[in-house]
Amino acid sequence: xxDLDVRLLVDLLRDRINxxxxxxxxxxxxxxxxxxxxxxxxxxxxxxxxxxxxEIGPGPGSLTxxxxxxxxxxxxxxxxxxxxxxxxxxxxxxENRLEVRLIDALExxxxxxxxxxxxxxxxxxxxxxxxxxxxxxxIFPLRGIALLVQDEFAERMAMIGGHAxxxxxxxxxxxxxxxxLDSRVPPHSFSPAPRVHSRLVxxxxxxxxxxxxxxxxxxxxxxxxxxxxxxxxxxxxLSKSPKRLNRIPGWHRTRWSNSIRQIPPQTxxxxxxxxxxxxxxxxxxxxxxx
Length: 290
Hints:
Elements: H1 6-14, E1 27-28, H2 31-41, E2 52-56, H3 62-69, E3 73-78, H4 81-90, E4 98-102, E5 116-120, H5 126-139, E6 144-150, H6 151-158, H7 168-174, E7 177-185, E8 190-191, E9 198-205, H8 216-227, H9 234-237, H10 253-259, H11 265-268, H12 277-288
Parallel strand pairs: 2-3, 2-5, 3-4, 5-6
Antiparallel strand pairs: 1-8, 6-9, 7-9
């Protein structure tokens, strides 16, 4: 690997393919951003030879190279066959620490023992990948995550920039992670350049005392349904039970009707975007106490 660098990896792959924007193929060139991504993923637990890192959409291997230099094992999930051939060719001397799989990350079985996730995510799968990360972490706890995503999407993940950026995405992530925005990454840091700025985001696992007495599925269900009509008041939004409420053990329409009577009248006059994640948790705890 000593003879490899990021520019060479990108050039070698671009000699063989024309990047497909539909696949989100914007290859990261900025070595400072690459190094930073690995560092922030290991903020709580360093990435080293005891780590197993999942990378989604490795492309030419820009991040893969930096991850392998830490000594970690890497599982890379890639949908482009030529990129898979390229990665197996340029990293053939570390094949015992790198597994490259030709598969969609949304359809693949993720290794149970992964400790970190580091990825330059294709923009169009950012939301479903985050849902998949949350489901995986609930069963197989992760130590750290660093993602490169579209700048506006990052603000919605962290719910900064005003009430308009509060929504189901950020509230759902809050249940399991502290979301921190890191470096803003301009288009010229990629080849080919995207039309928008990107942002490095870290997700650090956290155990929140505020959610000890609530059902996370109920929290996510209620938040999602309320934000589907975010301009309405909670009085109207909560008057009917969520559509799939009976999928949560112990819940049915009658219990729901009785439960919402416990909500303070002043809370019912609010709109979904007025509540912080902690206040949503408090609301779900009130509803669940009936």
